């Protein structure tokens, strides 16, 4: 973020490198129920991101000392495959993936009715197969769909988006180049109905006015993304109903 670059990220009309306007999302596609052995699953393509999520549980937490007698423990594991980026990364967890796993676990715990499953754990595996900026938000958005597809009771869906600053202008849903060479990156995730924030981080600098503009753009975008989530679940149940009727 903020590295010097000769790349011009906005043209004279405010159009971005990929042809989008400042408030335009990258294409998003979500599918669910793709993995037979998982209790719930989802696949998301968001721009160039390609991410698979598998959910298992609720089941008895093990080892037993990790159990909470009052509620289920949500354990999200975010991982970027070694081949997911241009420069091959070292396999296995690193400091960044551990931190992202923690904030995703906390965000999902806010949405899941964890109090219904004391001493249990819910495992959420998020595998980034191709990375193109905004992977934590894309992974979390898909994870919410995967949890719902597992039939785990939820208060609300979690949905998120990013915004940031590029060449002094606030833009929505940063691309890889904008993330690498822009001036700020602001990922936010909310509960879709109440708009309660469950994840917020910032890299770079935004004025108060820029922050309010960026967060407003994100809140508006989450309505559109939540509809994509709902349609993915509706399509899953529609397909199942057709199959049951044959």
UniProtKB/TrEMBL annotation:
The keyword Hydrolase applies. Its EC number is 3.1.13.-. The keyword Nuclease applies. It comes from the Archaea. InterPro entries: ExoRNase_PH_dom1, ExoRNase_PH_dom2, ExoRNase_PH_dom2_sf, PNPase/RNase_PH_dom_sf, Ribosomal_Su5_D2-typ_SF, RNase_PH, Rrp41. Residues 24-153, 156-214 form the Exoribonuclease phosphorolytic domain. It is an enzyme of class 3 (hydrolase). It is found in: Cytoplasm. Keywords: Cytoplasm, Exonuclease, Exosome, Hydrolase, Nuclease. One of its GO terms (biological process) is nuclear-transcribed mRNA catabolic process. GO terms for cellular component: cytoplasmic exosome (RNase complex). GO terms for molecular function: 3'-5'-RNA exonuclease activity; RNA binding. Component of the archaeal exosome complex. Forms a hexameric ring-like arrangement composed of 3 Rrp41-Rrp42 heterodimers. The hexameric ring associates with a trimer of Rrp4 and/or Csl4 subunits. Catalytic component of the exosome, which is a complex involved in RNA degradation. Has 3'->5' exoribonuclease activity. Can also synthesize heteropolymeric RNA-tails. Belongs to the RNase PH family. Rrp41 subfamily. This is Exosome complex component Rrp41.
């Amino acid at each position: 973020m903020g590295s010097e670059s000769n790349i011009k990220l906005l043209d004279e009309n405010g159009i971005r490198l990929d042809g989008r306007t400042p408030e335009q999302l990258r294409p998003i596609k979500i599918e669910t129920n793709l993995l037979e052995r998982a209790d719930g699953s989802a696949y998301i393509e968001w721009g160039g991101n390609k991410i698979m999520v598998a959910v298992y549980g609720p089941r008895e937490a093990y080892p037993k000392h990790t159990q909470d007698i009052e509620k289920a423990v949500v354990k999200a594991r975010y991982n970027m495959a070694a081949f997911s980026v241009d420069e091959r990364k070292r396999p296995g967890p690193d400091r960044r993936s551990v931190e992202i796993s923690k904030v995703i676990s906390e965000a999902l715990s806010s949405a899941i009715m964890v109090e219904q499953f004391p001493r249990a754990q819910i495992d959420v595996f998020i595998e980034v197969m191709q990375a193109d900026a905004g992977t934590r938000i894309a992974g979390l958005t898909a994870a919410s769909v995967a949890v719902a597809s597992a039939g785990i009771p939820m208060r609300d869906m979690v949905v998120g988006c990013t915004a940031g600053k590029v060449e002094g202008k606030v833009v929505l849903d940063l691309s890889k180049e904008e993330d690498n060479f822009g001036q700020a990156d602001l990922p936010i995730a909310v509960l879709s109905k109440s708009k309660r924030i469950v994840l917020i981080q910032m890299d770079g600098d935004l004025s108060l006015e820029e922050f309010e503009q960026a967060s407003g753009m994100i809140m508006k975008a989450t309505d559109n993304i939540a509809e994509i989530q709902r349609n993915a679940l509706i399509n899953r149940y529609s397909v199942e109903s057709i199959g049951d009727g044959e």
